[in-house]
Recover the amino acids of this structure.
């Protein structure tokens, strides 16, 4: 009986000492190089320069690449509580935006949603029609934009993010 009590005490001491050291959570010990998943890390943006004659217009292409295994909400989003992909172009005195074309979405069913969702996956292109004022001086003119996205995987959606985008415009 005394031996049984001693064994129980030793076991309790071993458990207590193990608890005081804490348990290692693999996610908590991830290396500093492991990137945190967020809407802005899932989406990469590439923009080609666009030439516009003074008084004319031309279409700029903003290419979005979404990491495999993720999607972003289409424009328009399926539900009001989901953040649609949206490119907000800041007009200047010399350059203004006429419209933004959003591509046709994929419609996919996900476990976390009752209805299929309109989404973008892989690589998509947003088209922006830009107009140059007829008095615009020749030369380089950066057009600042804000890209709003909400990335999701097959289980959850990440907080929306805003990505700064610059469309390099050359007035001819």
């Amino acid at each position: 009986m005394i031996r049984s009590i001693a064994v129980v005490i030793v076991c309790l001491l071993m458990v207590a000492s193990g608890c005081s050291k804490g348990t290692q959570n693999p996610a908590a010990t991830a290396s500093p190089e492991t990137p945190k998943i967020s809407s802005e890390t899932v989406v990469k943006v590439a923009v080609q320069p666009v030439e516009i004659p003074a008084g004319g217009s031309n279409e700029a292409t903003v290419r979005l690449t979404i990491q495999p295994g993720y999607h972003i909400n289409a424009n328009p989003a399926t539900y009001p509580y989901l953040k649609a992909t949206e490119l907000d172009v800041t007009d200047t005195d010399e350059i203004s935006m006429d419209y933004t074309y959003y591509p046709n979405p994929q419609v996919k069913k996900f476990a976390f949603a009752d209805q299929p969702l309109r989404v973008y996956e892989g690589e998509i292109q947003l088209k922006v029609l830009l107009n140059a004022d007829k008095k615009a001086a020749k030369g380089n003119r950066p057009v600042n934009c804000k890209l709003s996205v909400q990335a999701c995987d097959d289980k959850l959606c990440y907080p929306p993010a805003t990505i700064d985008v610059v469309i390099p415009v050359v007035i001819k």
